[in-house]
Amino acid sequence: MPCYGRRSNFMKHIILLVLLAFGSGNMTAQYATAPRFSVLALYSTRVEGAHVQFAEDAINYFKALTVGDGFYFDATDDFSLLNDETLKNYDLIMMLNDQPRNEQQRAAFERYMENGGGWMGFHVAAYNDRHTNWPWFLAFLGGGVFYCNSWPAIPAKLTVDKAHPVTKGLPASFIAPENEWYQWQPSPREHRDIEVLVSLSADNYPLGLKDIIPGGDTPVVWTNKKYRMVYLNMGHGQREFLDATQNYLVLNAFRWVLSIDKKGDPFR
Ligand code: ZN
Q: Is residue 216, in this structure, part of any structural domain at all?
């Protein structure tokens, strides 16, 4: 069957060529078909002025990072986009200065997170008190209710609590830019699912000029091990993105939340 044999070899050749073409096509595609992931940032304009300023700066900061179409960054003040249909398009949801107030939006966000969604929350986005009435979110954040704050916004010495991808490369302690620092009770550190990554150094106490944090345990950056999330207490005013060390921390957190996506690490 020489003819069959030749055809077989010919077919093998064609298949090899096709495989090579597809193979190289895929390799090219890895470079060409960016963006690699999509981010939706939610913010409110009807909140304290310094929190709106932070949201504007954060949007500018992250938008600038999309240079070269590395990723999509959408920002909106429309919290009704917290619905299943919209959320399925995003790998990471940011809450820059607010949280959903409406039951449907809250439920959609819970489903998104329970199914492996990613979240980064800043500053007042985690604020809660007896009026918040969202037990799921309180547990998600580690059970800490807002207790007290420093005022006005001032720099503070932060200490890195543990080795983690979010704190990788950071100094053991550094001075963070002006922020309104929050303390929570009970401390999220006491929650078994919470891993505290960065805290206020005891060297700061009493911290504040008008409103004072007198002492105690004040986690600043943490993750809940049950979710793909990081909370950062930074988020007040116009100096939050002027410090390279803090930017490095924010970027580490951003990359880490995306990198542990069960759909795969977009940076590999
Ligand atoms: Zn604030």
A: yes
pLDDT in tens, the chain (268 residues): 334 444 444 444 444 444 444 444 444 445 546 789 999 999 999 999 999 999 999 999 999 999 999 999 999 999 999 999 999 999 999 999 999 999 999 999 999 999 999 999 999 999 999 999 999 999 999 999 999 999 999 999 999 999 999 999 999 999 999 999 999 999 999 999 999 999 999 999 999 999 999 999 999 999 999 999 999 999 999 999 999 999 999 999 999 999 999 999 999 9
Does a structural domain hold residue 161? yes
pTM of the model: 0.88
Q: Which structural domain range is residue 114 located in?
A: 32-259
> What spacing in Å lies between the alpha carbon of 50 and ligand 1's midpoint?
7
In a domain, 113, yes or no: yes
Output the CA 6–ligand 1 centroid distance in Å.
76
The C-alpha atoms of residue 56 and residue 75 are separated, in whole angstroms, by: 10
How many domains does the chain divide into?
1
Bridge partner list, 156:
176
Separation of alpha carbons 1 and 239, rounded Å: 79
Residue 253 to residues 153, 172, 197, 249, 258: CA-CA distances in angstroms? 23, 17, 10, 6, 9
What's the distance, Cα to Cα, between the start and end of the chain in Å?
A: 48
CATH number at residue 168: 3.40.50.880
Q: 246 alpha carbon to ligand 1 midpoint, in Å?
A: 17
In the reported structure, the alpha carbon of residue 8 is separated from the centroid of ligand 1 by a whole-number distance in angstroms of: 72
Handedness of CA 147, 153, 156, 162 (dihedral sign): positive
**Ligand 1 mean position, distance from CA 125 (Å):** 10
